[in-house]
C-alpha cells in the first residue's frame, strides 16, 4: 500500500519484504486466484518523472520477456498517488539472504548461480533491457536451486553506482549510462562474492570505492585457480576487454566449469544451491560483521565469513588438482564432486578398433524423444565454441532453424582466428552464405574461404542432429540428475563428415559426450570431446529459447 492506495483486483495476504525500490507484498488475483508479488515503488521513484518515462518503455519490453531465469513481469500500474509492479511470486530467498546466512557458496554453487544469472541477463539484453544494478539482493534462488534475476531497470538514471556500489563498473562511476558490459562486470562481482563471501573491492567511502573499482588490482588470487580467468575477464577495468556479450561469457563459463569439475557441474551446483536455500530459509541471516578496510581498496580480510567444512574440502580438492597439473583419467561417476569430462579410449595414431558394444536402447530412446521435441519447435538461440587441435578456435552465437530434408539455416555472429578474428555477421541458408559488404548482404558459396567457411563449420559442429547421432552411436550411456553422459563409437558416425574428419585428425575411436535437457525433451547444453592431450577437440553448444524461428536469406 502506498498512501492508502492498493493495486485494484488483488487481495493482499502479507508483506514479503522491503528494499531500496519499495515494499513487496504477497497478493492473490481476485479472478484467477493466482499468487503474485506486488512491489509498491518508493515515493522517490514514483515521483521521478525521468525514471518513470524510461521504466514505462522497459515495462513494455519486460512484459514480453518469458525466461526461466527471469522473474516474470506481469504489469506496471500507475495511479495518482503511487506506482506498483505486479510480478511472479517466486518461492525461495534472495542471494543476499543466502550469503548473509551461510557465507560463501562454494565453487559449484557459485558457477551454477552465475550461469543462471547470465541466462537471465541475456534474455533481458535480447529485449534491449539493461539491468543497470545487478547485486545479490535482486537475484532470487528457488527451492530447486534455480537463479532468477529481478528488478530490471529499477534504478533512476544517474544513480546506478549508488544503488550497488560494491558491484558498479568503473565506467558507471565515471558517469556512463548502464550497459550490457556493466551488467557483466556487476554479475562477475556477485560471482566473486559467492566464491569468497565478500565483494571484490571495499572502502570507507564511496569515493574510495570508486577509486578501487577504477584502479585496484583485480584480486584473482583469492578464487580457485580454474576460475581466475572468468574473474579477470568479467572484472576488466575497460568495457571492451570484458566478454563481448553475455553469450560469450556463458560459453567461457561452460568451458571452465566442465574442465575443472566435469560435465555434471551444473546439476551438482544447482543441488548445492537448493541446500543453501533450505538452510538459509530456516534461519534468520546473521547481523553483518564490521571490518576494517585495507588501504589498497580491496576487500577487508578480518570480516571473512567462516568457511564450511564442505567449502574447505572443495578448496583442498582444487589445490590437489592444480598440483597434479591437469584433469585426467576416464569418465567418473556423475555424482562425485570431482567429476571429470568423458575421455575417448584411444588417441594418437589410428589403432585397430575391436568390435563395438551393442547400441544402448536407453540412448536410442532419448534420441527419438529429442527428434520429436525439436520437430515441434524447430528453432533455437545458440552459443557455440570449438577449441583444441585440428584448426583454430571458433566461437559463434545467434539462432538456428531446422528444416526437414535440408541443412539448418543459421543467423550468427562468428569469430575465428587469423583473418577471421574480428566478429562478423553471417546468414547461412542451404549452400549459400550471406556476408555483409558495407550496408548490403553479398551471397557467396558456403565453402568460400573466410567467414562463409567458418560459418559452415559452426553449422557442422552445433547442429542438433549431432546430439541424436551421438546417442544412436552410444556404446556407454548413463544418467545422473539432469545430465546424460556416455561415449559413442566414431566408426558408427562415419557418415557424419565432422566426426569422420575429427576421427582422422585425432586418431580416436570414441567421442565422449555430456548432454543436459529441458523438461520438454530438447537439449540445452551439449559437450563433446574427441581425442586426448594435444590431439583433442572440444565442441560446446548451448541452446535456449526453443520455438519456431524461421531464418530467411537477407535482401
Give the topology, please.
Layout: E1 10-19, E2 22-29, E3 35-41, H1 43-46, H2 49-62, E4 73-79, E5 82-88, E6 93-94, H3 95-102, H4 107-126, E7 139-141, E8 147-149, H5 160-163, H6 170-173, H7 180-196, H8 206-215, H9 228-234, H10 246-261, H11 265-282, H12 309-324, H13 361-376, E9 379-388, E10 394-403, E11 406-415, E12 424-429, E13 432-437, E14 440-445, H14 451-462, H15 465-472, E15 474-480, E16 483-489, H16 497-506, E17 510-517, E18 523-532, E19 535-544
Antiparallel strand pairs: 1-2, 2-3, 3-5, 4-5, 6-7, 7-8, 9-10, 9-19, 10-11, 11-12, 12-13, 13-14, 15-16, 16-17, 17-18, 18-19
List keywords for this structure.
555 residues; Transferase(Phosphotransferase), domain 1; outer membrane lipoprotein receptor (LolB), chain A; five-stranded antiparallel sheet; 16 helices; 25% strand; globular
Question: What would your notes on this structure say?
Answer:
The structure is a single chain. The protein is 33% helix and 25% strand. The N and C termini lie far apart (53 Å). The chain has 555 residues and is an alpha+beta fold. It folds into three domains: 79 residues, Phosphorylase Kinase, domain 1; 229 residues, Transferase(Phosphotransferase) domain 1 (Transferase(Phosphotransferase), domain 1, Orthogonal Bundle), CATH 1.10.510; 184 residues, outer membrane lipoprotein receptor (LolB), chain A, CATH 2.50.20. About 13% of the residues have low confidence.
Q: In total, how many beta strands?
A: 19
Level of helix content? Answer: 25-40%
Query: How far apart are the termini?
Result: 53 Å
- Fraction of residues in β-strands: 15-25%
Please tell me the CATH architecture of the largest domain by its name.
Orthogonal Bundle
Q: What shape does the CA trace take?
A: globular
- Which fold name corresponds to the CATH topology of the largest domain? Transferase(Phosphotransferase), domain 1
Radius of gyration: 24 Å
Poorly predicted runs: 285-356
Reported for the largest beta sheet, the result is:
11 strands, antiparallel
The average pLDDT score comes to 82
CATH top level of the largest domain? Answer: Mainly Alpha
Amino acid at each position: 500500500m502506498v498512501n492508502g492506495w492498493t493495486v485494484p483486483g488483488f487481495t493482499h495476504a502479507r508483506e514479503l519484504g522491503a528494499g531500496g525500490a519499495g515494499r513487496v507484498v504477497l497478493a492473490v488475483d481476485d479472478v484467477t486466484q493466482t499468487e503474485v508479488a506486488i512491489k509498491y515503488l518508493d515515493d522517490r521513484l514514483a515521483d521521478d518523472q525521468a525514471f518513470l518515462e524510461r521504466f514505462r518503455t522497459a515495462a513494455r519490453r519486460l512484459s514480453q520477456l518469458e525466461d526461466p531465469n527471469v522473474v516474470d513481469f506481469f504489469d506496471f500500474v500507475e495511479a495518482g498517488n503511487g506506482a506498483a509492479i505486479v510480478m511472479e511470486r517466486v518461492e525461495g530467498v534472495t542471494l543476499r539472504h543466502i550469503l548473509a546466512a551461510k557465507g560463501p557458496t562454494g565453487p559449484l554453487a557459485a558457477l551454477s548461480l552465475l550461469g543462471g544469472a547470465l541466462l537471465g541477463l541475456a534474455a533481458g539484453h535480447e529485449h534491449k533491457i539493461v539491468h543497470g544494478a545487478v547485486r545479490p539482493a535482486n537475484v532470487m534462488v528457488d527451492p530447486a536451486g534455480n537463479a532468477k534475476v529481478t528488478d530490471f531497470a529499477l534504478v533512476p538514471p544517474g544513480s546506478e553506482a549508488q544503488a550497488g556500489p560494491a558491484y558498479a563498473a568503473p565506467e558507471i562511476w565515471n558517469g556512463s549510462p548502464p550497459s550490457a558490459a556493466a551488467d557483466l562486470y556487476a554479475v562477475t562481482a556477485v560471482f566473486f562474492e559467492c566464491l569468497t563471501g565478500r565483494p571484490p573491492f571495499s572502502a570507507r567511502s564511496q569515493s574510495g570505492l570508486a577509486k578501487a573499482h577504477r584502479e585496484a588490482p583485480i584480486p584473482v588470487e583469492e578464487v580457485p585457480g580454474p576460475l581466475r580467468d572468468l574473474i579477470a575477464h568479467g572484472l576488466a577495468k575497460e568495457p571492451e576487454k570484458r566478454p563481448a556479450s553475455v553469450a560469450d561469457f556463458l560459453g567461457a563459463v561452460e568451458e571452465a566449469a566442465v574442465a575443472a569439475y566435469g560435465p555434471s557441474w551444473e546439476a551438482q551446483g544447482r543441488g548445492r544451491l537448493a541446500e543453501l536455500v533450505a538452510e538459509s530459509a530456516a534461519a534468520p541471516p546473521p547481523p553483518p560483521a564490521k571490518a576494517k578496510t585495507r588501504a589498497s581498496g580491496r576487500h577487508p580480510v578480518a570480516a571473512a565469513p567462516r568457511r564450511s567444512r564442505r567449502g574447505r574440502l572443495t578448496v583442498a580438492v582444487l589445490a590437489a588438482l592444480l598440483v597434479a597439473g591437469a584433469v585426467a583419467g576416464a569418465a567418473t561417476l556423475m555424482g562425485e564432486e570431482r567429476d571429470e569430462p568423458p575421455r575417448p579410449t584411444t588417441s594418437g595414431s589410428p589403432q585397430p578398433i575391436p568390435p563395438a558394444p551393442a547400441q544402448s536402447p536407453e540412448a536410442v530412446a532419448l534420441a527419438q524423444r529429442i527428434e520429436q521435441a525439436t520437430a515441434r519447435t524447430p528453432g533455437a538461440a545458440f552459443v557455440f565454441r570449438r577449441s583444441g587441435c585440428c584448426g583454430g578456435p571458433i566461437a559463434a552465437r545467434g539462432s538456428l532453424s531446422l528444416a526437414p530434408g535440408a541443412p539448418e539455416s543459421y543467423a550468427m555472429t562468428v569469430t575465428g582466428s587469423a583473418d577471421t578474428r574480428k566478429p562478423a555477421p553471417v546468414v547461412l541458408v542451404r549452400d549459400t552464405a550471406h556476408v555483409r559488404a558495407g550496408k548490403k548482404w553479398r551471397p557467396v558459396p558456403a565453402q568460400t574461404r573466410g567467414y562463409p567457411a567458418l560459418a559452415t563449420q559452426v553449422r557442422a559442429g552445433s547442429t542438433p542432429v549431432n546430439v541424436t547421432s551421438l546417442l544412436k552411436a552410444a556404446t556407454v550411456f548413463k544418467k545422473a540428475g539432469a545430465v546424460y553422459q556416455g561415449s559413442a563409437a566414431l566408426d558408427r558416425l562415419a557418415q557424419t563428415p565432422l566426426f569422420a574428419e575429427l576421427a582422422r585428425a585425432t586418431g580416436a575411436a570414441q567421442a565422449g559426450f555430456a548432454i543436459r535437457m529441458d523438461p520438454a525433451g530438447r537439449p540445452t547444453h551439449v559437450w563433446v570431446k574427441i581425442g586426448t592431450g594435444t590431439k583433442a577437440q572440444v565442441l560446446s553448444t548451448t541452446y535456449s529459447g526453443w520455438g519456431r524461428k524461421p531464418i530467411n536469406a537477407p535482401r
